[in-house]
Amino acid sequence: MANSKFNLFRFSGKMKILHLSWCAFFITFLVWFNVAPLLSLIAVSLDLTQNQLKTLLILNVALTIPARVIIGMLTDRFGPKRVYSLLLFACSVPCFIFAFADNFEQLAFARFLLGCIGAGFVIGIRMISEWFPVKELGLAQGIYAGWGNFGSAAAALTLPTLAILFGGENGWRYAIGITGVISLTFAFIYYINVTDTPKGASYYKTSKINAIAVTSKRDLYLLLIIKLPIYAALALLTWKLSPSGVAMLTTQITYLVYVALSVVMLSDFMQTIRANKSLFSHHPPEHEHYDFKQVAVLCLLYFSTFGSELAVVSMLPLFFAHTFEVGVAEAGILASSFAFMNLMSRPAGGWLSDRFGRKPILFTLTVGLALSYFGVAQIDSTWSISAAILLIMLCSFFVQSGEGAVFAVVPLIKRRFTGQIAGITGAYGNAGAVFFLTVYSITSVQIFFYVITASAVLSFIALFFMTEPQGYISESNENGTITRIPVG
């Protein structure tokens, strides 16, 4: 069934897995971004300041950074079926806590925990890679991610109206609570209806939950370097919450968090070195080799693409409301234009990669990314709303097609570590979101978009160091049998 014809209107075999997986991802984004379009209503209901609202947006993406790395490890070890179902189930709890919160501290705590649900994306990347052949992999991953990403647009389109229909100052609570019920229900639907691989296929899993293995000392040093920005993003978040930012943390607690991050980082580095200590005594078998440089380049690309998308989706409703002086519901609908393009753009990026090559398409899309963000930086109140929406939709095409092109490459590096590679790459997307949202919170909107433009230019330069996936990757199962998997 996994090798049957690609037909979106079928609901059996690999197509059933694709449809259930993008639905799971859609729900994670619906829950994850249920706060952005309701910020104005929540602010009135609980008398929140603008700084507190911006803090909620940053907290919403903070825990996703380590969660994506950890979820990637769990997926490679236990399989996507169990991990996705458990994530949907567990994250409904903080969603309910947020819906019933009475003050900013409770909102912040629940929002911080809800960042974990953003790690669901990583799980589906491994699931789709198990079910689809390489010639369809970019398109399938693009549909999974693009249609799932539309959950943020669905939140912007429906939740403000739903809150208004419920009425009163608690309407937003019912709207958010409903998304928690949907997540809880689909956890059981997913678990009952999917399997990790097609019948008779092997699931190449890691032997234990551990740091990703690399195959050269150079790659080990690069892996350690790649981890640094992830911890830097968490330190940046801590600074934002300190007395120098919104003063949610005291000076003493801020320093304690910095110390804790340093200890965790050193422990992570030591574990990574222990997991790869064999590199200092002998070379791994040829069939285990892969180039970690590829992962580093993809991380930088995802920092610019998905990192900017998360930041822009989070701030766009307020941007439209303030720039064009429109109401909450209308601002949410206008802002959904950015995420709306996910339905077509991300699958298009994957399909173009399948058709014309991974690296050439990434080059083209990254140029478009830089130019379009530069254009968006020019939008102000003198623009017509229609012109602003058209430019934002063009920008979103390059953003989301770029994301699709990035994850058309991720499963082609090393199958056994697909979850962890997706986790690290995805974590960079969230690190980008924290960085860009912090820039947004302390500078003007125009500078915010200029900073994103600069990151796209740096990503373009990094692409020169990427190698087009070719030939095969080799994997060995538990009995030692080696299988060659085509990647180009």
**Helical content class:** over 70%
Structural class: mainly alpha
Mean model confidence by pLDDT: 86
Largest sheet: spatial strand order: 1-2
The outline comes out as: globular
**Could you give a short account of the major beta sheet?**
2 strands, antiparallel
Q: Which H/E pattern describes the elements?
A: HHHHHHHHHHHHHHHHHHEE
Number of strands: 2
SS strand fraction: under 5%
Annotation field: number of helices: 18
Termini separation comes to 22 Å
Which spans of ≥5 residues are poorly predicted at pLDDT below 50? none
Gyration radius, in Å: 21 Å
Features of the shown structure:
single chain; mainly alpha
Account of the protein in words:
Helix content is 72%, strand content 2%. The chain is built from 18 helices and two strands. It has a two-stranded antiparallel ribbon with strand order 1-2. A hairpin with a 5-residue loop joins strand 1 and strand 2. Helix 4 runs parallel beside helix 7, helix 10 runs antiparallel to helix 11 and helix 12 packs parallel to helix 17. The protein is globular, with a radius of gyration of 21 Å.
What topology emerges from the helices and strands here?
Layout lengths: L12 H20 L6 H8 L3 H13 L1 H15 L1 H20 L4 H11 L5 H12 L2 H33 L4 H23 L23 H25 L9 H25 L17 H32 L3 H13 L1 H15 L1 H19 L8 H22 L11 H25 L2 H18 L9 E5 L5 E5 L2
Antiparallel strand pairs: 1-2
Helix pairs in contact: 1-5, 1-7, 1-8, 1-9, 3-6, 3-10, 3-17, 4-5, 4-7, 4-17, 5-6, 5-7, 5-9, 7-8, 7-17, 8-9, 8-13, 8-14, 8-16, 10-11, 10-17, 12-13, 12-16, 12-17, 12-18, 13-16, 14-15, 14-16, 15-16, 15-18, 17-18
